[in-house]
Amino acid sequence: MEQIIYRIAISLPAFLLAIVCHEAAHAWMAKRFGDYTGEQLGRLSLNPAVHYDLVGTVIFPLVGAVLGGTMFGWAKPVPVDTRRFKNVRSGIFWVSFAGPLANIFLMVIAAIMLALIKTKVSPAFSYYTVIYDMLGSAVTINVLLAVFNLIPFPPLDGSKMVTSMLDYNKARQYEELQRYSFVFLIILIMTPVLGWIMAPAFMISNFIVNVFVHIFAGF
Predict the structure, then answer these.
(1) Is 82 exposed, middle or buried (0-12, 13-18, 19+ CB in 10 A)?
(2) Can you tell me the distance from the alpha carbon of 73 to that of 212, in angstroms, rounded to the nearest whole number?
(3) For residues 136-161, average pLDDT
(4) Alpha carbons 96 and 122: distance in angstroms, whole number
């Protein structure tokens, strides 16, 4: 029980920031392309309460933490009205990409801070382990959210980015795959497929951390 509580404590701040920034980024980019729907609904905000989803924000991540894995989940999707976009194709692409891009940005920030802690703070510092584990969790969570959402299967962000490049008929046919989204999710979770997808991403994130470690170690 102590391990579960500790895992939740070090992961929850990074998890909430990751999903909130993900959705707020969608709303911000939609506004940039002329759709103010997200802002009007209060979703252009870093307040977790406005992005809250019972299953994705509470149940799913808690189950992951209890089972010993990374806290993983989602927030309530930001409504987007593509009819308001100044440029529909570009709007769909960049609004969809904005969420994963926010997570990539957060991952890099966490990697920099992790490298600073590793090179500039003594392990004898009282909160060294806690801070180190929190930043390591932030790197992992944001990599997982970014890469998972970039998978080109409806309704994930990656699929919408692909849709923006297709003509109307092919886009509608492609979106028909959404009816199998639950089956696809089960396959990802219950088989090694997600691990195969994530392995290169985690290798890259570890490489990025090590690059910053080497940079800061030289100062």
Answers:
(1) middle
(2) 28
(3) 95
(4) 41
